[in-house]
Amino acid sequence: MVDFNKIIDFFENLNIPENMLNRGQLVLNEFMNPIKILFEQRSVPKEPWTDEQIEFLLQTLSNMDTDKDKNAARVGEREARIASKLHLKTSAGFCHGVGRSGFLTAAQPKAPGGSIMYHLSNYLARNVLRNFGLPNIKAAIVVPICTGMSLSLVLGALKPDQNEDPQNLKRKVLIPQIDHKSLLKSINLLGFKTKIISGKIFGDAVRIPIDDIRNNLDDECFAVISVTSFFPPREHDDIKEISKFAQQNNLVHIIINAYGVQSPEWMKMIRSAIDAGRVDAIIQSTDKNFLTPIGGAVIASPTKENITKISQTYPGRASATPIVNFLISMLSMGITGYQKLIEQQQQNREILEIKLKEVAEKLNERVLNIFNPVAVAVSLKNLKEDQLYALGGALYNLRVTGPRVYNPKEKLFGTCCSNYLTPYIVMNAAIGSTKKDIVSAVERFEKAYKQITHK
Asked: Which residue range(s) make up the domain with 413?
């Protein structure tokens, strides 16, 4: 076995000057040292890794899995056999996936390297959340499913025990109105009933008063959902008060923090909620927060037992690819890189609002007064219905992706209430966006608005 820290010992008798060998060992040690620190500390590195270091780590770990054993007799029905070497690239070599059937975080006998990779990823998930606002969580796991499916997984894990009282089984979930189909589908998928508490208008903003949530509690309810990040005009829930309400009434409390990790304000709310009452799980998307390809989420909890239950509820072995993508993001950004991205996001959000206010004044529109650390909404009260419909298409043709145009007269779903009157457009300054993106999008919004109003 080669000890890379002493690799020059193998060549000390060759005609290579000692000072040259020592210099080479120094460079190699600097390359390998971050990997050693990762294994020892199991935390997100302070400084970013190079792509070469990340590739070396992934290749080393994936080569520990049994599908790389050329002398193995592989006769099972699931042996990570692949049709093309391209599969190795798309999975970073972890063709066996992670976990075992019925236990997501269990060690996989055919994937010792994949098991190490997954455990490291989970440590990093907990570490990054602790570093960026949630020091009071105890455990976290990366799951290879989206935010909505993660909610299904959590509800399935934390639902009432069917063996306790089958005749009196609680099957209802309280939801402060969240007009998002994937979250509603995730609850319906499990056969639970939803009790939606309607949003109310406060100025421009839509909120769900805590008293309305309290008044909708009945004997069939076993859980309550709350949300941080959502699209204007919907503001965040009163998460701290909901956590107290959940504790007082023995309700499972799940926070949907879909793209909230990038916001210190939203993370502070969650931290206060954990300290004040009951929070069972917090769900956040990997692509919206950590710049990965779509298909993963991080589930965290202030209770280790909840994460164990959730990991044991996952049906089947899981794809390693979304977990690898999260690990790559964490290593490539590091704590300093992620902090810079958050600072850039805050700056871009300020620029977005300033630019949109300037354009809104020209168009006799206004920026709506809604608290949201990521998105800004602008009224479209001067546009006719056909023009509202045309605006989205005009923006798309101008190569602007992401804005949402709402006409409440045509469709209320999305406003999170039943009587919102002002048509509006929502634009985001999410993590990873650049100042150039923001400025260009606002300029093209003004151009699109003028195009459709001067036909």
From this structure: 337-453
**Neighbouring residues of 449: CB distance < 8 A, sequence distance ≥ 6:** 359, 363, 383, 391
CATH number, residue 448: 3.90.1150.10
Query: How many domains is the chain partitioned into structurally?
Result: 1
Of 131, 154, 117, the residue nearest 39 (C-alpha): 117
**Residue 383 is assigned to a structural domain of this protein:** yes
Residue reference for tokens 């977990």: 323
pTM for this structure? 0.94
User: Average pLDDT for consecutive 10-residue bins of the chain (455 residues)?
Assistant: 78 82 89 94 95 94 84 74 84 86 82 92 97 97 95 94 67 94 91 94 97 95 96 96 97 97 97 97 96 95 96 89 96 97 97 97 96 97 91 91 90 90 95 95 94 80
DSSP tag of 400: -
Secondary structure class of 102 (helix, strand, coil): coil
Residue 269 within a domain: no
Q: Tell me if 237 is assigned to some domain.
A: no
- Find, among 129, 158, 156, 131, the residue nearest to 141 by Cα: 129
Question: Catalytic residues, which ones?
Answer: 78, 100-101, 108, 180, 258, 288, 317
138 is a domain residue:
no
| The CA-based dihedral angle spanning residues 240, 242, 246, 252, taken in that order and rounded to the nearest 10 degrees | -100
